Amino acid sequence: MSSSVKEISILEVKKHNTPEDLWMVIHDKVYDLTKFRSEHPGGDDVLDEYAGKEASKAFDDVGHSSDAVEMMAQYCVGELAVADRKAGGSSKK
Is 34 exposed, middle or buried (0-12, 13-18, 19+ CB in 10 A)? Predict the structure, then answer.
C-alpha cells in the first residue's frame, strides 16, 4: 500500500454510523458518504442501513452505473486495513 493512502480499521469505520457521520466500506475502500447522503439517487435510507459497515454486496446487487463508480473516488477517505479484509474478500475491481 502506498504511504499516500490512509489505512483505516473496521473499528474506525464502525464509529461513523449515523446520518451526520456516514462511512462505509465498498471493495476494501472506505468512503465518507455524509455529504452525498442527501443526493443519493436511491434515497438516504439505503445508505443509513449500511452506515459503518461493509456494503460491497449491496452495492454490487444494485448494479451501479460506470458514472456512479467513477463518482465514488471523490468520497474515498482510505483503504480498509489489510488485517480487516475478508479472506478471498470484497476487493472486486
Answer: middle
